[in-house]
Structure formats: structure tokens, C-alpha cells
Amino acid sequence: METKQVKLDEIADGAAPALFEKAAEAVMENIYNPNTDATKKRKVTLEFVFTPGKKRDQSTVSVQAKTTLQPIVPVETTVIIGVANDGKVVSNELKSGAIGQGYMDVETGEVKDDTGKPVAADGKVLDLRQTK
Questions:
Q1: C-beta separation of 114 from 102 below 8 A
Q2: CB neighbours of residue 114 within 10 Å
Q3: Angle made by CA atoms 29, 72, 105, in degrees to the nearest 5
Q4: What's residue 125's pLDDT?
Q5: What are the E-state strand segments in 2-113?
Q6: Which listed residue, 65, 68, 83, 85, has the most CB atoms within 10 A of its CB?
Q7: For the CA atoms of 12, 18, 22, 24, what is the dihedral angle to 10 degrees?
Q8: Residue 126 binned pLDDT confidence (cut-offs 50, 70, 90)
Q9: Does pLDDT of 71 surpass 80?
């Protein structure tokens, strides 16, 4: 019998390097994704499983690439909860940053309440300089 050993780049017709390249591509895409944590580590593992035959004169080898990627970073918001006049519990996403506080929508210029609903303008402008 020849004394040649199995080589990484030749086993399974070169499957190991091809599997690594595909897994590394997935890792690079995960790193580049702005919705994942930029600083957390990612991992590629090449797993070789050798299953010997009963006579110990052969073995099947399965090659698999496994990746450990970072999940999408969670997005948080605040929901305000209250009770409507009919007694039902209701909720809305808080848009202004504080309950009861209005804000100006920078995209539309509209004044909105804390849940993002436009506030009807009454046409009255209060000149704060006149309130002294």
C-alpha cells in the first residue's frame, strides 16, 4: 500500500476548501450587515466525521462547514397603554419620547401628538413675548 496520506485540499474532490469559501462568504456578509453587532466574533468550523468500516480497512468521511453568525440586533420602541372610554385597554407606539408631548415630524413638518397622529391647527399663534 502506498504511504500517501489524505490531504485537505484533495479530500472529497476538493470539497473542504469550497465549503470553507462558501462559509467565509456568509461570514463576510454577516459582518457587513449594518443590522448586526459590528464587534462580535463570527466563526467557521470545518467538521470531518470519519466512520470506519467493520474491518478497519476503510472509512467514509463526511465534510461539513458550520458557521456561527451574529443575529440581527433587536429594535426597541416604547408602547403607551391606557383604557379607552368604553373600558377597553388600548395601546399606541410612543413617537414623541414623552407621554403627552407633541413633536414636529421632520419629514413632513406636521405637528403630531405623542402617538404620531397629526394635531389639528386651530389657527391661533401664541406670541410668548406678549405674555410678560
A1: yes
A2: 19
A3: 110
A4: 64
A5: 43-52, 59-68, 79-83, 89-93, 103-104, 111-112
A6: 65
A7: 110
A8: low
A9: yes
